[in-house]
Amino acid sequence: MRINNRDLANAIRFLSIDAIQKANSGHPGMPMGMADVATVLFKDFLRFDPRNPSWINRDRFVLSAGHGSMLLYSLLYLTGYKSISLNDIKNFRQINSICAGHPEYHPDSGIETTTGPLGQGISNAVGFAISEEFLKKQNGKNKINHKTYVLAGDGCLMEGISHEALSLAGHLKLKNLILLFDNNSVSIDGPTSLAVSDDHEKRFKSYGWNYLKIDGHNFREISRALNKAQKSQKPTAISCKTTIGFGSPNKSGKSSAHGSPLGEDEVKLVRKKLKWNFQPFQIPKNLLVEWRKIGEKAGKNAKKNNFKGNKIINESINFNRLNNSLNRIKDEYLKNLKPIATRKTSEMFLDVFSKLPNLVGGSADLAGSNNTKTKYHKIIKPGNFSGNYIHYGVREHAMCGIMNGISLHSNLIPYGGTFLIFSDYCKPSIRLAAMMKQRVIYVFTHDSIGLGEDGPTHQPIEQLTSLRSIPNLNVFRPADLQETFECWTLAIQNKRTPSVIALTRQGINPVRTKNSNINHSAKGGYEILRTRKKINLTIISSGSETSLACDIGHKLATESIYCKIISMPCQELFDQQNNAYKKKILKETKLVVSIEASETSYWKKYTGDNGLNFGINDFGKSAPYKEIYNYFGLNTKNIINRIKSKL
Predict the structure, then answer these.
(1) Catalytic residue among 112, 132, 164, 396
(2) Spatial distance between the Cα atoms of 309 and 189, rounded to a whole number of angstroms
């Protein structure tokens, strides 16, 4: 009996329907609607290898419409990926199942990225496509020549991040990027006409994309459109007009098929309508064999490729050579010890480390303010990917989502800059980077009221606390040149944790005046000054306030009040130290004081109820920065008086 595409697609539909029904939770409508498109893609176009899921030159398939996750899990199981078993599918949405409610990134699984927040997958896909072009330029198209496909729904295109990401993709002419738009005109609340009247074709074309319109259930049209997209010189969007919940007599085309199981009675009716005379989770042998042949054929084609490795850039970075260059810079600086902004010391670090072949920089239209672009960087331009620096434009949200895609693609290390206050625009993507354990580096300058006259709209207060609350994210706030170099080194060396590097606009005095080959910042917090062996109090600070803390320590000593100053550039690394070390730092004195020009509550875990916390728990002011510090009591005189009163 000849097997046709509809039979193959129905295998996807019923695995999805049955898993969602068993879990009594999920979104059946999208897998039912897009099964036909996905079948043609995997059968005839997608380059993949189920036995080597991390093959570097595979096509990337990103499910931005992550609520339809059962579409992806069904495809991976049917084509023979070892990561997804039938038992996993039966445990859809159950604890510790790889078949989570929304796709969650697992290395070597075929699940390329964590999606769920709509639109994130689109930005990830742009990052994948940029990476492919970048590596192709470095290594030649005989080794790197793949596509990125992203399946997006109406909701993905409503989210603002999609506008930012699609606009940049069009500007860069990412011809290797193909977006499959599940154009079913239905969202959870009902028809999309309740909230949207966009002309999608005009929108995509204005971005510089090709736009094709097809019937998403017509296999000939699907194939023709995908063929056309292969030869495009622009990114291509294929609008697939589909019926959500395809095959459901009572729920197809309705929002009731979107976010809830169909129900046992309706599932029986779908089986009858689509002539699927099999028990739940039963895939007839001939269909499963055919799907496995599709996977085997794809794997054989993959093996014919000239380059068989999973990594394209040697990860063995010669840190010794680069560190020698850093030491020369430190030695030169320590001869004069002039005040310098940490955003500038960050640029000095990048002057050396921009030579890393897998470091890809960028900024959201603030390169000159973030100091993220050095004289050694070359710009990635439309149609020319020989550079290593991306001008993201005023697109912070997309920048961070794109950097996730760059990191996920291979062993590239992306970093991107903006002001710390705008980390609020970036947070959804930062959170996902932390969840996926990706090495993404965020250079956030203008890190406090120290930026001055731009005022409270630009002065971060609660942002450091907000970022520190994200699991598996290291938030670095270095105090001077040496700490900046140390924090950058730690960020680059950590392959499983994203890093924030918060940097000053204003010049600050150095707190370490002797060169050291020991990375003191690796412990998160360490003693930087001690005014006497026996002390009365401990002062903890970060960033620009560390020099203030040292000044306070010296002045207290003139009044026979002695202390130690703890520089804490990274709370997260300090919290990972053993109890003996933490006790040594925090428990030597009864009084512990924190100083940081930000929200104060997050420091109380170190200072305790008896401690003092100097910071800001209100919005900033527009004035020269020294006046603002005085206004909020962040000065030597006020802090000393408060400490003396407490003692």
Answers:
(1) 396
(2) 46
- State the DSSP string of 427-461: HHHHHHHHHHT---EEEEES-SGGG-TT-TTTS-S
Backbone angles phi, psi at 381, to 5 degrees: -125, 165
- Tell me, letter by letter, the H, E, C secondary structure of 30-61: HHHHHHHHHHHHHHHHCCCCCCCCCCCCCCEE
Per the CB < 8 A criterion, the answer to whether 483 and 474 are in contact is no
CA 138/CA 169 separation, integer angstroms: 20
Decide if 283 contacts 292 (C-beta within 8 A): no
* In the block, residue with structure tokens 């990860």: 315
Q: Is there a contact between 245 and 251 (Cβ–Cβ < 8 Å)?
A: yes
> What is the spatial distance between Cα 16 and Cα 221, in angstroms, rounded to a whole number?
24
pTM: 0.97
Give the tokens for residue 44.
Answer: 């005839």
pLDDT at 314: 66
- Please write the tens of the pLDDT for every residue from 91-112: 999 999 999 999 999 999 999 9
Around 69, how many Cα atoms within 13 Å sit in the side-chain half-sphere?
30
Indicate if 347 belongs to the active site.
no
Report the pLDDT value the prediction gives residue 121, as an integer from 0 to 100. Answer: 98
Long-range contacts formed by 275-280: CB under 8 A, 24+ apart = 276/10, 276/13, 276/14, 278/14, 280/14, 280/18, 280/21, 280/22
Q: What are phi and psi of 95, to 5 degrees?
A: -60, 135
- What are the distances in angstroms from CA 351 to CA 53, 57, 372, 447? 36, 31, 10, 22
In the structure encoding, which two tokens stand for residue 50, read together? 């189920």
φ/ψ of 391, rounded to 5, equals -85, 105
- Is residue 166 within 8 Å of residue 207, measured between CB atoms? yes
Q: Which of 491, 498, 496, 512 is nearest to 468 (CA)?
A: 498
